[in-house]
Amino acid sequence: MKITLEYPxxxxxxxxxxxxxxxxIFAYILFGLSxxxxxxxxxxxxxxxxxxxxxxxxxxxxxxxALLKLATVNTTPQDSGIRH
Length: 84
Description:
Layout: H1 7-20, H2 24-71
């Protein structure tokens, strides 16, 4: 598991420090902002995963269509112009 310290986590730590220093209003504001930013980051990650999944699905569809087109090509021998 990859652990990162980005902006929402930094705001959460800052709100904890402010809460311990009895600056509760600022602590609650930072806590709310950290939750909001964390949810936005999660939503972006979910959207990226869905887009990648759609890309893979469309690619698989194109491959399937190409293989079906290749399989349904008229397989009758063509006149080569050579007479026996």
